[in-house]
């Protein structure tokens, strides 16, 4: 009886904590969405000509966030995929390997502001990229490489050893077995990691303040020549992202209706992050069901 009572007490205690956390998160999300709802409109999402005027939109900042996210993923995915495959399939359990794994874990826990300062010194100053899209993409790649590498390694390690043995029994080499059997089986976990990294990149602010910059120059969306300074695809132009825009509105107060615009931008950012996390879960489940048939 005492064990049953203790079990009920522990269950009640844990349930209360879970409900409390859920209520806290739900209250936060509802507050952000309700406060930002009055500012949301199609013009608000697409306007690119009224950066700091009353009723200004977030079209440029939204595009900058998407552009930097795509460039960051293009840098991170090949490197993380190669590093994750090596650590999971080829690396032996030596002192050097353990050191690299510890370094990856340390990198995963570094504050983004530290990565931003490092990116500023290396990419903005040393490589003379200036505050630019490419400097921001490289800085965010440093921030997320370790996280995505661990996700890829864990996804590959979760593949049943019998599948590797089956590939080798069919006469496939080790590399062919990894690329044709192991990696496809690990795709659900890899895709989940990629989508989560995309969400992290989209919502990042601290690292981009010191690398991509805090200004959003006027862009001509009819010019798609990457070498043109007014082109949206120019990687050497400053690029204020949505998260940085929110911080700037609340810290400088240059826009007459800045609090309302910041609330609307915050609501858009929260919605997009929720979509990224939902997409990661849905894609992971769909791919797992499809590949397990």
TrEMBL record:
<dbReference type="InterPro" id="IPR035906">
    <property type="entry name" value="MetI-like_sf"/>
</dbReference>
<dbReference type="InterPro" id="IPR000515">
    <property type="entry name" value="MetI-like"/>
</dbReference>
<keyword id="KW-0472">Membrane</keyword>
<feature type="transmembrane region" description="Helical">
    <location>
        <begin position="99"/>
        <end position="123"/>
    </location>
</feature>
<feature type="transmembrane region" description="Helical">
    <location>
        <begin position="260"/>
        <end position="283"/>
    </location>
</feature>
<keyword id="KW-0813">Transport</keyword>
<dbReference type="InterPro" id="IPR005672">
    <property type="entry name" value="Phosphate_PstA"/>
</dbReference>
<comment type="similarity">
    <text>Belongs to the binding-protein-dependent transport system permease family. CysTW subfamily.</text>
</comment>
<feature type="transmembrane region" description="Helical">
    <location>
        <begin position="12"/>
        <end position="34"/>
    </location>
</feature>
<feature type="domain" description="ABC transmembrane type-1">
    <location>
        <begin position="62"/>
        <end position="280"/>
    </location>
</feature>
<keyword id="KW-1133">Transmembrane helix</keyword>
<feature type="transmembrane region" description="Helical">
    <location>
        <begin position="181"/>
        <end position="202"/>
    </location>
</feature>
<feature type="transmembrane region" description="Helical">
    <location>
        <begin position="66"/>
        <end position="87"/>
    </location>
</feature>
<keyword id="KW-0812">Transmembrane</keyword>
<feature type="transmembrane region" description="Helical">
    <location>
        <begin position="129"/>
        <end position="148"/>
    </location>
</feature>
<protein>
    <recommendedName>
        <fullName>Phosphate transport system permease protein PstA</fullName>
    </recommendedName>
</protein>
<dbReference type="Pfam" id="PF00528">
    <property type="entry name" value="BPD_transp_1"/>
</dbReference>
<keyword id="KW-1003">Cell membrane</keyword>
């Amino acid at each position: 009886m005492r064990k049953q009572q203790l079990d009920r007490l522990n269950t009640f205690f844990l349930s209360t904590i879970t409900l409390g956390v859920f209520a806290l998160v739900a209250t936060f999300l509802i507050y952000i969405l309700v406060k930002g709802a009055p500012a949301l409109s199609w013009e608000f999402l697409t306007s690119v000509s009224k950066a700091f005027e009353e009723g200004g939109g977030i079209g440029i900042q939204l595009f900058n966030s998407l552009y930097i996210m795509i460039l960051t993923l293009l840098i991170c995915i090949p490197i993380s995929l190669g590093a994750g495959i090596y650590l999971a399939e080829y690396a032996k359990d030596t002192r050097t390997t353990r050191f690299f794994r510890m370094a990856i874990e340390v990198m995963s826990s570094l504050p983004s502001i530290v990565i931003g300062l490092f990116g500023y010194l290396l990419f903005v100053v040393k490589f003379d990229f200036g505050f630019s899209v490419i400097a921001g993409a490289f800085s965010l790649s440093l921030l997320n490489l370790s996280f995505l590498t661990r996700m890829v390694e864990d996804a590959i390690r979760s593949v049943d050893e019998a599948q590797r043995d089956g590939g080798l029994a069919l006469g496939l080499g080790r590399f062919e077995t990894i690329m044709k059997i192991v990696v496809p089986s690990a795709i659900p976990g890899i895709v989940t990691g990629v989508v989560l990294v995309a969400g992290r990149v989209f919502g990042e602010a601290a690292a981009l303040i010191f690398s991509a910059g805090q200004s959003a120059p006027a862009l001509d969306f009819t010019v798609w020549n990457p070498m043109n300074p007014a082109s949206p695809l120019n990687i050497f132009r400053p690029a204020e992202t949505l998260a940085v825009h929110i911080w700037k509105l609340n810290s400088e107060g240059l826009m007459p209706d800045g609090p309302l615009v910041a609330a609307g931008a915050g609501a858009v950012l929260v919605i997009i992050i929720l979509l990224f996390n939902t997409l990661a879960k849905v894609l992971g489940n769909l791919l797992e069901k499809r590949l397990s048939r």
